[in-house]
Amino acid sequence: MLTWSLTTLSVAMQMQGRFDDAVQVTSRAVSEALAAPDEQARLRGPFFLHGMALCAADRLDEAVVAYRRAAAECDELESWWLLPDIQLMSTEVRFLRGDWEEVTAELEGGVQFPREHGNLIGLPRFHAYSALVASAPGRRQVWRACARAVRGQAR
Question: How far is CA 142 from CA 24, 135, 145, in A?
């Protein structure tokens, strides 16, 4: 339960703009999950939520590593419920990094998979990213500014 509590606390911290605190809390959640006597804590997605905190803190390279580890955890634990979200959030990192050529196809696939599997919470954000890509080809500064607005961050 501690792992889940820490990861949910990190979401509140991000909403308050406390990005570094959110990264610290999710880092602890990952440590607690790996030290737990069984797999229950790891099944709560601490690597995924750590990736989200890292992304919100603009630590994009580290977020990519965390998302890869989250995907590997899904495979190792045979629990795939987070994979659509991991794919979408990994696509967000590519978008924010400026990997424009690859992002369109990933956004399309990332939107389709959750639709098929009933996980719809992140779709509005990714529809907005898709609209930005379609409306502002080659205008990276516009995309980056709009992406931050979609994420609710003005920094």
Answer: 31, 10, 5
Tokens describing residue 130: 């898709």
Domains and CATH numbers, the chain: 1-79 (1.25.40), 81-155 (no CATH)
Structure tokens at 100: 């424009």
d(CA 138, CA 143): 9
Q: How confident is the model at residue 154 (pLDDT cuts 50, 70, 90)?
A: very low
Query: How far is the C-alpha of 3 from the C-alpha of 154, rounded, in Å?
Result: 29
Between helix 46-56 and helix 60-77 the angle, nearest 10°, is: 170
pTM for the structure as a whole: 0.80
CA distance 73 to 24: 20
Distance between CA atoms of residues 126 and 128, nearest Å:
5
Residue-wise pLDDT for 20-46, tens only, equals 999 999 999 999 999 999 999 999 999
Longest distance between any two alpha carbons in the chain, whole Å: 50
Amino acid found at 91:
T
Would you call 79 exposed, middle or buried from its count of C-beta atoms within 10 A (0-12, 13-18, 19+)?
middle
